[in-house]
Structure formats: structure tokens, C-alpha cells
Write a structure and sequence with these properties.
It is built from no helices and eleven strands. By secondary structure, it is an all-beta fold. Strands 2, 4, 5, 6, 9, 10 and 11 form a seven-stranded mixed sheet that branches. A four-stranded antiparallel sheet has the order 1-3-8-7, with no helix packed on it. A hairpin with a 6-residue loop joins strand 5 and strand 6.
């Protein structure tokens, strides 16, 4: 069992940066693959980025590639999403999710979810 808590969301102007964090409790978090998803009002939850348990392989949605960077510190049981060059269309609730199974790009691939953190990009 893993519990996930996101933090670091907030409001920022277009072009700005934010880093959101996903802190995990529970044993063996270092063995979990982790992803970030986001959900804007009236839209489906969409894949943003994921990282395998070793941290050696990462994946990104085309819409954030080159602007967002996912990383993890297994010693701290934390996964980060650094978001640069933010755009209004990045506005959403950001969720982290974890699985012991194969990494994927759909919400159904993940067994554990955090409560989400709001990111708002507006001038």
C-alpha cells in the first residue's frame, strides 16, 4: 500500500515555472513506477509524464516535451515535476499516480493516486 500527497501547485504567469512534488509513504516506494496526470475542468484526465522505478527512463506527452522534467529521489520517497515555460493551457489539477506493474499512459495503468494539486497559469 502506498499513500501519495502532491504539493507545490499554485498560480503563475505565462512563461513562468513551478515544481510540483509527490511524496509517498508506505514501503518499497522505490519499486513503483510513477506518473503525473492532469485534469482541466470539463476535460478527461490526461497523461503528462512518467518515470520508471530506477529513474533511468522517462516519458512525456508531446504537449509538455521540452518544457517539463520528471525526476525522483527514492531516498526521499519523492517524485518531482519541474514545469517551465508554462502556458494557460497547462492549467489543471495535477495528480501523481503509482503502480508496481508495467508503466503506462492511461489512468487505468495506475493503482494509487494522490488528491491532486491545482496549477493555474494566467496573466
Amino acid at each position: 500500500q502506498v499513500q501519495l500527497v502532491e504539493s507545490g501547485g499554485g498560480s503563475v504567469q505565462p512563461g513562468g515555472s513551478l515544481r510540483v512534488s509527490c511524496a509517498a509513504s508506505g514501503r518499497s516506494f522505490s519499486m513503483y513506477n510513477v506518473a503525473w496526470f492532469r485534469q482541466a475542468p470539463g476535460k478527461e484526465r490526461e497523461f503528462v509524464s512518467s518515470i520508471v522505478w530506477t529513474g533511468r527512463t522517462t516519458f512525456y506527452a508531446d504537449s509538455v516535451k521540452g518544457r517539463f522534467t520528471i525526476s525522483r529521489d527514492n531516498a526521499k520517497n519523492t517524485v518531482y515535476l519541474q514545469m517551465n515555460s508554462l502556458r494557460p493551457e497547462d492549467t489543471a489539477v495535477y495528480y501523481c499516480a503509482a503502480t508496481e506493474n508495467r508503466i503506462g499512459r492511461t489512468p487505468a495503468s495506475y493503482d494509487y493516486w494522490g488528491q491532486g494539486t491545482q496549477v493555474t497559469v494566467s496573466s
